Amino acid sequence: MRFIKKLVPDIYLGLLLIFIYLPIVILIVYSFNSLPKSFIWGGFTLDNYKSLFKGSDGSGILESLIETLKVAAIASVASTAFGVVSSLGLAYLNKKLQNLAMTMTYVPNVMPDLVTGISFMLLFSFLGVQKSEFTLIMSHIALCVPFAILSISPKIKQLDKSLTEAAMDLGATRFQTLRLVIIPEIMPGILSSALLTFTLSIDDYLISNFNVDSSIQTLPMMIYSMAKLGVNPKMNALTTLMFGAVLILMVLSNLSSFKKAKNK
After folding, report:
1. Rounded distance, CA 123 to CA 127, Å?
2. Interval 1-46: pLDDT, tens
3. How far apart (Å, rounded) are the C-alpha atoms in residues 264 and 140?
4. Do the beta carbons of residue 67 and residue 217 sit within 8 Å?
5. Three-state secondary-structure class, residue 149
6. Do 197 and 144 touch, CB atoms closer than 8 A?
7. Contact 181, 167 (CB under 8 A)
8. What sign results for the dihedral spanned by CA atoms 76, 77, 82, 87?
9. Which position among 27, 43, 60, 189 has the lowest Cβ density within 10 Å, counted as fewest Cβ atoms?
């Protein structure tokens, strides 16, 4: 009986992992399928990967990927910078104001993307700003800033105030204290914020769809439009490469953490 009780959680975990990763495995397998837009296996081929970088069919997938990565990089850097400044400012508020500010920060995080996208569309229309790459980037920054604050604030709360006081007592300016003491101490939170906001920006569809004109297409927008007629096999190849890149980053991050823990 005890053996069965111990086995049930393992079975549940195994089924959960299969449910999560089976679609990704299917996507990776069919990225090597020689039959385009088909779930019938026609044989192994690397043509989907070759044509992805050649851009031979004019699908614009690579252009959409570059645009998406550019917007995500700008939004990630800007929102993380705003997150650092905002989190430092929150740290100096009294407890009541700090709780109020953090509550206001939580609201956009639980707000449906549909509401956020329409809100920014109406704001830009009210201000008379034409939809463009600029409106796309600004809406993505606004989406990411609350998540950046929530990633960085805990690290600032854990920061030992005596370190900053000691640095200033030894003659460091406020900027030197920020650059040489505070930033290195909260760097894990900054990196977490950068990765999280970068991922959120790449993944976003609704906010992008409402705040950009038809001349610009992000990768999620292109995937959605392709899905109506059948996903291009090059898209399978692209998403496989993206999954591989994320997997490599996760492995390297874990190895780095393991080495640091081992050195301690």
Report:
1. 6
2. 666 667 777 788 888 989 988 988 888 888 888 877 667 777 888 8
3. 39
4. yes
5. helix
6. yes
7. yes
8. positive
9. 43
In the predicted structure, residue 231 carries a pLDDT above the cut 70: no
Structure tokens at 131: 């939809």
Distance CA(45)–CA(255), nearest Å, equals 33
Assign 236 a pLDDT band (cuts: 50, 70, 90). confident
Q: How many residues are given for the chain?
A: 264
Q: Round to whole Å and give the CA distance between 83 and 89.
A: 10
Structure tokens at 9: 């959680």
Q: Cα(227)–Cα(158) distance, rounded to whole angstroms?
A: 46
- The pLDDT > 90 percentage for the chain reads 19
CA separation for the pair 24, 257 (Å, rounded) = 26
Distance between CA 208 and CA 169 in Å, rounded?
48
* Nearest residue to 241 via CA among 59, 50, 72: 50
Beta carbons of 138 and 169 less than 8 angstroms apart? no
The predicted-structure confidence for 239-256, as pLDDT tens digits, reads as follows 888 888 888 877 877 776
The tokens 């409402």 sit on which residue? 210
Task: Quote the pLDDT of residue 258.
Answer: 67
- The CA–CA distances, whole Å, from 148 to 10, 107, 116, 201, 220 equal 35, 14, 17, 12, 22
Using DSSP's 3-state secondary structure scheme, residue 58 falls into: coil
